[in-house]
Design goal:
- The chain is an alpha+beta fold.
- It has 2 domains: 152 residues, no CATH class; 125 residues, 3-Layer(aba) Sandwich (Protein Transport Mog1p, Chain A), CATH 3.40.1000.
Length: 286
């Protein structure tokens, strides 16, 4: 039995040495995405034939079985271990791959050489438990990642300038929230959360509506700014309405082909203050 474990571990070591470079590229942040993906695909395609050749070289009793079972056990144990180290360096990933390959191929060699049914049943139960545990850990990790992303986004919104939305955008729902800078908040509106946005609102910390409209029409011959009121200017562009309005200290820009003039004015002339949490949740829901 000890000799079989040593031979199986040797086969795993050979597999790890051959495939270590492709595995390291998968975890290397300096490697481009397509290159890393190609390296991962190469490792997946070659692991069985390389495992079979390695098992033959170290004289494992059942090289085909080991070549097939070894990668399965390696994937199972990798799935269990990986959530504990979510962002390993390429060197750490290779070292971990070597250790797991040695252990799993040794286990595969032992399992394929055992004649009794009980150890195989126990091993199957352990594998199933590992798969379930891995799925649960990955689900929790994903939930934790989403919570962290939300916290970071709320913190960014809290530090940016405008935290307000139009009091009403007729017939539309807020589906997207963005920041162009610390001074500019961008809001996307759509008919519902399954529709494409067709109303785009920008809220600036400050600005002059007349000057902003004049800058917007620059470079578009034939366009002009129309004064609707002292603090409201409008540009028409092939059915598209772009309104610039002063609301308190903020400059509001409403850009849409879907709203009428009256609806555009409603959307751009009254704001209500909201929290960073509200903006984060509204953008995530979209």
């Amino acid at each position: 039995m000890a000799k079989d474990l040593v031979r199986g571990g040797g086969a795993g070591l050979l597999v790890a040495l051959v495939l270590g470079q492709p595995v390291s590229q998968w975890y290397d942040r300096n490697v481009e995405g397509l290159t890393a993906l190609a390296s991962g695909a190469i490792a997946v395609l070659l692991i069985v034939p390389i495992g079979w050749l390695a098992a033959k070289l170290v004289r494992v009793a059942h090289p085909v079985r080991v070549a097939l079972l070894g990668p399965l056990l390696l994937w199972v144990f990798k799935s269990v271990v990986e959530p504990a180290v979510p962002d390993p360096s390429s060197l750490f990933a290779v070292l971990g791959f070597v250790v797991l390959a040695v252990v799993t191929y040794a286990a595969a060699t032992w399992l394929t050489g055992v004649e009794s049914l009980l150890p195989r049943v126990i091993a199957a139960g352990v594998v199933c438990a590992c798969v379930i545990t891995s799925a649960m850990l990955q689900e929790r990790q994903e939930e934790a990642r989403k919570r962290q992303v939300r916290r970071d986004w709320i913190a960014a919104l809290a530090q940016s300038g405008p935290r307000a939305v139009p009091d009403a955008v007729p017939g539309r729902t807020l589906v997207g929230v963005w920041t162009l800078s610390d001074e500019v908040l961008t809001l996307d509106y759509a008919k519902d959360r399954t529709s494409e946005p067709d109303v785009f609102v920008q809220i600036h910390d400050k600005g002059d509506p007349r000057e902003s409209c004049a800058m917007w029409v620059q470079g578009h011959p034939g366009l002009a700014c129309e004064r609707l009121a002292a603090d409201r200017w409008l540009s028409r562009f092939y059915g598209r309405l772009v309104l610039f309005a002063k609301v308190g200290d903020s400059l509001v820009q409403v850009d849409s082909k879907a709203l009428s003039l009256d609806q555009t004015i409603i959307a751009g002339t009254k704001l209500r203050a909201v929290s960073a949490e509200y903006l984060a949740d509204a953008g995530a829901a979209g």
